[in-house]
Write a structure and sequence with these properties.
It contains seven helices and four strands, in the order αβββααααβαα. The chain is α+β, with helices and mostly antiparallel strands.
Length: 185
Protein backbone atom coordinates (compact mmCIF):
# COMPACT_ATOMS: atom_id res chain seq x y z
CA UNK A 1 0.00 0.00 0.00
CA UNK A 2 2.82 2.39 0.81
CA UNK A 3 4.24 1.97 -2.68
CA UNK A 4 0.82 2.54 -4.29
CA UNK A 5 0.40 5.88 -2.52
CA UNK A 6 4.09 6.78 -2.99
CA UNK A 7 4.91 7.06 0.71
CA UNK A 8 8.52 6.49 1.75
CA UNK A 9 9.36 3.49 3.92
CA UNK A 10 12.43 1.65 5.20
CA UNK A 11 12.34 -1.88 3.76
CA UNK A 12 14.96 -3.00 6.31
CA UNK A 13 12.77 -2.27 9.34
CA UNK A 14 9.31 -2.76 7.86
CA UNK A 15 8.52 -6.44 7.48
CA UNK A 16 6.35 -7.27 4.54
CA UNK A 17 6.61 -6.52 0.86
CA UNK A 18 4.92 -4.68 -1.91
CA UNK A 19 2.26 -6.49 -3.89
CA UNK A 20 2.31 -3.98 -6.74
CA UNK A 21 4.09 -6.50 -8.97
CA UNK A 22 1.18 -8.93 -8.50
CA UNK A 23 -1.36 -6.21 -9.20
CA UNK A 24 0.48 -5.55 -12.47
CA UNK A 25 0.29 -9.24 -13.47
CA UNK A 26 3.79 -10.25 -12.38
CA UNK A 27 4.98 -12.84 -9.89
CA UNK A 28 6.77 -12.33 -6.61
CA UNK A 29 10.14 -13.88 -5.89
CA UNK A 30 10.40 -16.19 -2.88
CA UNK A 31 10.82 -14.46 0.46
CA UNK A 32 13.04 -15.85 3.19
CA UNK A 33 11.24 -16.92 6.36
CA UNK A 34 13.15 -16.69 9.64
CA UNK A 35 12.27 -19.06 12.49
CA UNK A 36 13.76 -19.23 15.96
CA UNK A 37 15.52 -19.09 18.23
CA UNK A 38 15.12 -22.66 19.39
CA UNK A 39 15.95 -24.06 22.82
CA UNK A 40 19.64 -24.17 21.91
CA UNK A 41 19.87 -20.66 20.43
CA UNK A 42 19.63 -21.91 16.86
CA UNK A 43 17.75 -20.38 13.96
CA UNK A 44 16.23 -21.70 10.76
CA UNK A 45 15.76 -20.04 7.41
CA UNK A 46 13.25 -21.27 4.84
CA UNK A 47 13.81 -20.00 1.33
CA UNK A 48 12.86 -21.16 -2.14
CA UNK A 49 12.12 -24.75 -1.08
CA UNK A 50 15.21 -25.08 1.13
CA UNK A 51 15.57 -25.06 4.90
CA UNK A 52 18.84 -24.15 6.57
CA UNK A 53 19.13 -24.89 10.28
CA UNK A 54 21.92 -23.15 12.16
CA UNK A 55 22.71 -24.67 15.55
CA UNK A 56 24.94 -23.28 18.27
CA UNK A 57 24.67 -26.02 20.90
CA UNK A 58 27.26 -24.68 23.34
CA UNK A 59 25.33 -21.47 23.95
CA UNK A 60 23.03 -21.27 26.93
CA UNK A 61 22.48 -23.03 30.23
CA UNK A 62 24.13 -26.34 30.99
CA UNK A 63 20.85 -28.27 30.91
CA UNK A 64 19.83 -27.09 27.44
CA UNK A 65 23.34 -27.50 26.06
CA UNK A 66 23.63 -31.04 27.40
CA UNK A 67 20.34 -32.00 25.78
CA UNK A 68 21.58 -31.09 22.29
CA UNK A 69 22.20 -34.27 20.22
CA UNK A 70 25.58 -33.03 18.93
CA UNK A 71 26.81 -32.36 22.49
CA UNK A 72 25.54 -35.70 23.76
CA UNK A 73 27.25 -37.53 20.87
CA UNK A 74 30.49 -35.68 21.57
CA UNK A 75 30.34 -36.52 25.27
CA UNK A 76 29.83 -40.22 24.49
CA UNK A 77 32.69 -40.25 21.96
CA UNK A 78 35.10 -38.38 24.22
CA UNK A 79 34.09 -39.51 27.69
CA UNK A 80 32.12 -42.75 27.29
CA UNK A 81 28.60 -43.37 28.50
CA UNK A 82 25.35 -43.39 26.58
CA UNK A 83 23.36 -40.90 24.56
CA UNK A 84 20.17 -42.36 26.02
CA UNK A 85 20.59 -40.71 29.43
CA UNK A 86 18.11 -37.94 30.21
CA UNK A 87 19.74 -34.49 30.15
CA UNK A 88 19.58 -34.08 33.95
CA UNK A 89 21.48 -37.37 34.39
CA UNK A 90 24.05 -36.29 31.82
CA UNK A 91 24.43 -33.02 33.74
CA UNK A 92 24.91 -34.99 36.98
CA UNK A 93 27.51 -37.20 35.29
CA UNK A 94 29.38 -34.12 34.08
CA UNK A 95 29.25 -32.69 37.60
CA UNK A 96 30.91 -35.90 38.88
CA UNK A 97 33.74 -35.58 36.34
CA UNK A 98 37.22 -35.09 37.86
CA UNK A 99 37.19 -31.44 36.70
CA UNK A 100 33.62 -30.41 35.69
CA UNK A 101 34.65 -26.81 34.96
CA UNK A 102 37.39 -27.96 32.58
CA UNK A 103 34.98 -30.40 30.90
CA UNK A 104 32.41 -27.60 30.48
CA UNK A 105 35.07 -25.32 28.94
CA UNK A 106 36.08 -28.17 26.62
CA UNK A 107 32.47 -28.75 25.54
CA UNK A 108 31.95 -25.03 24.94
CA UNK A 109 35.14 -24.68 22.90
CA UNK A 110 34.59 -27.84 20.86
CA UNK A 111 30.92 -27.36 20.11
CA UNK A 112 30.25 -23.63 19.92
CA UNK A 113 29.20 -23.87 16.28
CA UNK A 114 27.57 -22.71 14.21
CA UNK A 115 26.63 -26.03 12.64
CA UNK A 116 24.38 -26.22 9.63
CA UNK A 117 21.81 -28.69 8.45
CA UNK A 118 20.25 -28.33 5.01
CA UNK A 119 17.01 -29.86 3.74
CA UNK A 120 15.22 -29.72 0.39
CA UNK A 121 11.66 -29.51 1.68
CA UNK A 122 9.96 -30.38 -1.62
CA UNK A 123 11.78 -33.73 -1.72
CA UNK A 124 12.18 -34.30 2.03
CA UNK A 125 9.32 -32.70 4.00
CA UNK A 126 10.20 -34.79 7.06
CA UNK A 127 13.73 -33.34 7.09
CA UNK A 128 15.34 -36.78 7.21
CA UNK A 129 18.24 -36.25 4.78
CA UNK A 130 20.74 -33.54 5.76
CA UNK A 131 22.30 -32.22 2.54
CA UNK A 132 24.74 -29.76 4.16
CA UNK A 133 27.87 -31.80 3.39
CA UNK A 134 26.79 -32.35 -0.23
CA UNK A 135 25.75 -28.72 -0.86
CA UNK A 136 28.39 -26.46 0.78
CA UNK A 137 27.81 -23.59 -1.66
CA UNK A 138 24.08 -23.56 -0.93
CA UNK A 139 24.80 -23.69 2.82
CA UNK A 140 27.12 -20.68 2.46
CA UNK A 141 24.54 -18.78 0.37
CA UNK A 142 21.70 -19.49 2.81
CA UNK A 143 23.93 -18.76 5.83
CA UNK A 144 24.64 -15.31 4.37
CA UNK A 145 20.90 -14.80 3.82
CA UNK A 146 20.21 -15.97 7.39
CA UNK A 147 22.77 -13.48 8.75
CA UNK A 148 21.15 -10.71 6.71
CA UNK A 149 17.67 -11.60 7.95
CA UNK A 150 18.87 -11.79 11.57
CA UNK A 151 20.45 -8.36 11.19
CA UNK A 152 17.25 -7.02 9.66
CA UNK A 153 15.14 -8.47 12.50
CA UNK A 154 17.49 -6.94 15.08
CA UNK A 155 17.30 -3.57 13.35
CA UNK A 156 13.49 -3.75 13.40
CA UNK A 157 13.55 -4.74 17.09
CA UNK A 158 15.76 -1.76 17.94
CA UNK A 159 13.41 0.57 16.04
CA UNK A 160 10.69 -0.08 18.64
CA UNK A 161 11.25 2.13 21.72
CA UNK A 162 11.67 0.26 25.05
CA UNK A 163 8.35 -0.07 26.83
CA UNK A 164 6.35 0.74 23.68
CA UNK A 165 2.82 -0.57 23.77
CA UNK A 166 0.32 -1.22 21.04
CA UNK A 167 -3.04 0.29 21.84
CA UNK A 168 -5.93 -1.53 20.19
CA UNK A 169 -9.51 -0.43 20.12
CA UNK A 170 -12.38 -2.86 20.78
CA UNK A 171 -13.08 -3.47 17.09
CA UNK A 172 -9.45 -4.41 16.39
CA UNK A 173 -9.44 -6.76 19.41
CA UNK A 174 -12.60 -8.49 18.14
CA UNK A 175 -11.03 -8.91 14.69
CA UNK A 176 -7.85 -10.32 16.21
CA UNK A 177 -9.86 -12.73 18.38
CA UNK A 178 -11.80 -13.90 15.30
CA UNK A 179 -8.46 -14.66 13.62
CA UNK A 180 -7.17 -16.47 16.71
CA UNK A 181 -4.52 -13.87 17.63
CA UNK A 182 -6.09 -12.67 20.87
CA UNK A 183 -8.43 -13.81 23.59
CA UNK A 184 -8.51 -17.06 25.54
CA UNK A 185 -7.31 -19.78 23.18
Amino acid sequence: LLELVALPYDADTLHGRSLVTLLNGGTLPPVPILAGPDLHGGWALLHDGWKLVEARPAVGRHHTVLSHPRVRKWLVERHGGTQDLPADQVEAAVARAPDPKKLWEEVTAALAGPYHELYRLDDDPGELVDLAAAEPERVAELARLLARELERAEKARRAVPPGARVVADEELLREMEALGYAGDH
